[in-house]
Amino acid sequence: MLSLRKRLLPWLALAPIALAASTGAWAETVARYGISMADIPLTTGQPDRGAGAYQFTGHTLYDPLIAWESNVGDRPGKLIAGLATEWKPDAKDPKKWLFTLRQGVKFHDGSAFDADAVIWNLEKVLNDKAPQFDAKQSAQVRPRIPSIASYRKVNATTVEITTKEPDALFPYQLPWFLIGSPAQWEKMGKDWNKVASQPSGTGPFKLDKLVPRERAELVRNADYWDKSRVAKTDRIVLLPIPDAVTRGNALLNGQVDIIETPAPDMVPQLQAGGFKIVKNVTPHVWPYHFSTYQGSPWTDIRVRKAANLAVDRSAIVQLLNGLGQPAKGQVDATSPWFGKPSFDIKYDLKTAKALMAEAGYSPQKPLKAKVIIAQGGTGQMLSLPMNEFVQQSLAEVGIQVEFEVVELENLYLHWRSGAKGDINASKGITAINLGYVTADPFYGITRFVNSKYVAPNGVNWGGYADKEVDAKIEQLSTTFDVPTQNKLLADIHQKMVDDALMLWVVHDVNPHALSPKVKEFIQAQHWFQDLTTIRM
Amino acid sequence: MFAYIIKRLLYAVPIALAVTLVAFLLVHIAPGDALNAIAPADAPAETIAALKAAYGLDRPLPVQYGLWLGRALQGDLGASIATGRSVTSEVMAAVGNTLSLAGVAAIIGVLAGCVLGGIAGYRHGGWVDRIATFISVIGVSVPHYWLGLVLTIVFSITLGWLPAMGAGPEGGWFLDGAHLPYIVLPALTMAVVPMGILTRTVRAVVVDILAQDFVQALRAKGLGNRRIFRHVAKNAAPTVLAVAGLQLGYLMGGSILIETVFAWPGTGFLLNTAIFQRDLPLLQGTLLVLCLFFVLLNLLVDIAQPFIDPRMRRT
After folding, report:
1. So what's the pLDDT on residue B257?
2. What whole-number distance in Å separates Cα of residue A38 and Cα of residue B73?
3. Type and span of the H or E element at A373
4. Of B47, B149, B156, the CB nearest to A245
5. CB–CB of A255 and B163 under 8 A?
6. What ipTM was reported for this prediction?
7. Is the pLDDT of residue B124 over 60?
8. With contacts defined as CB-CB under 8 Å, which chain A residues touch B164?
9. What is the mean pLDDT of chain B?
């Protein structure tokens, strides 16, 4: 017979676990996240407020057919299977893409995901005659999926999407298109405003609570189909705090656990207080986009190159307290699309002055140029101080820059109109400073150099046209092999840099500040971040 | 008296109509595009045109104004372009939060202003007067944004006594123990300007009243300071009331910076969002409600004054 001691031992061993449970060690884990937006982005399926909003109410609540790998930080992500397990162009007609859908996936409301749901969602944003058409969602996503011409259900697990022209880069458009539940829309009385407070997607989080302009609470979807991406935290509370200093104060005060984009001035204080600053290579660039139309001061390549060599980017990064990375082109030098440009962008005042002298200018006899800039706003980093720094740097080599300062929303109007548009030409504006997202080949590269996209047909703002580049873009559209695509993109980017198409200054690093309570957060090299990686 | 009230009410009607016109025109003449609220920056021209038609923004301005005014008169301020939510409910929720904040700030500001101004007036020329004047000058000069940050650094971050932002632990402000700490810092920050203005006003009025003959007569009749103070207070009240009313209106509309610094979900925060998003219906609706509040407050002050000062009934 066992002694009393031996019989009690197993129970004694369990005592600490029972104690821990009773004292709340197994209580719900909560991460309070101070976001830089003034409101919670749209929750109905296609978030508003730009690429940065997808991490909050996009890829948390919903899934796309093709996803972007966002749970790795040590290398750039890539396209991965989302609600489609496989996608391929038709061998006979490259405009037709066949998507094989993932089986057994259910929306948060319990209804099944299938081909009908995909078609219903495409109709929701592309067919304004469909009852479920939502102008707001459509406006958000339509510009992101410009290639789609038509679509049809092949069978319950296969969908065919036809593009307007052969477009090998089409898969890159699909992480922006998210799939919501048709059944939930019916249940909510076909009212998108009601769906906003009770949305239903297939994503790794469900929306538990929404207080407009104040908070959104996301809870873990324990039944998420991708077991490797089940959220590590039970609840994420999103709190809109648009002012960077207020966000920093809330973190210091313990009201939130994570903030995005801390104010650069607060970085030393946060670090001294034991808070962790995380940042990573981010597809974003802060450039001056030149007009290359006749009459623009930037038509001379020597001037464009001199401008690129005149700016001490490391000093700007210092101004940002480290929250930036010197740019050597449109994309970061580690990107597979960077290529091997012969023009090395760096701080070289001597060469810059020599180039300007060759072009017939000097600080005493300066070239005058007018640049339109925003006073601030999303993607613009520290707009005014950075612009003043660039202005002084350019003055040193003989480029006298005058600023036209407008609000960001107004700047977009100037951007869409192109350098030749009256709104710019009448004021003598020959360059624009606007932060660009460079996340995919179209957004990052081709739309700025394709002569088909010269504004107002697109955002080739300065009217750049180069036959060699156009031919490469044409070739790219029918090249379905990813390494060859990357090589072509690298060639195009190389040409952009060698032509000094823009004055590239810095890349954003999408900084986050974390309280010591946050044990893990993987910051992807993208604007899409994966909140399932947050562990408290 | 009845005729006076009717006359004041009738005056308010054209003012309110003018307010609707100004609120509408102001947001339309500002540069930018209303569709920036929903369309991405690089949306193609056809998407923009389709959206303009969908939201009626392609119609002539007078038509847009007429349609908007017609709905506004029925209490319908339309729907936010950005979120689709009803502007009326958005504005009313925000007005509730701002009223709470402005109310607490007004109480602090008016009480402190009357006390400081009264003491300074009674001690005219002395060191108490100089200190009160100094405080009032600081009050009207200090930038809100800066003061809010300093108070946050001291009371939230260094001492850890009060929250740095937000209206409550779960969103929205209510009068209970859990929410009370959230209002302290924004209300104190907001109270500084009305406190400064009222201190100066009350001081000047009290000095003026104390120099008048009737006060000498009251003293000659042997009245004590306490009873003389009642007469001074009664004579100062109309001016103080008028200034306090204006200040409350100012607090309702002038809180954009404070609400942004403290992430307080009121009308200032709402206006900030609406301005930067060019969400015209939301912007127009918020401006209209705030302006009407101002008109209403002035109307109430006008109506209240004859009850306090019988001389007003004769004018």
Report:
1. 85
2. 29
3. strand A367-374
4. B149
5. yes
6. 0.79
7. yes
8. 246, 249-250, 252-253, 255
9. 84
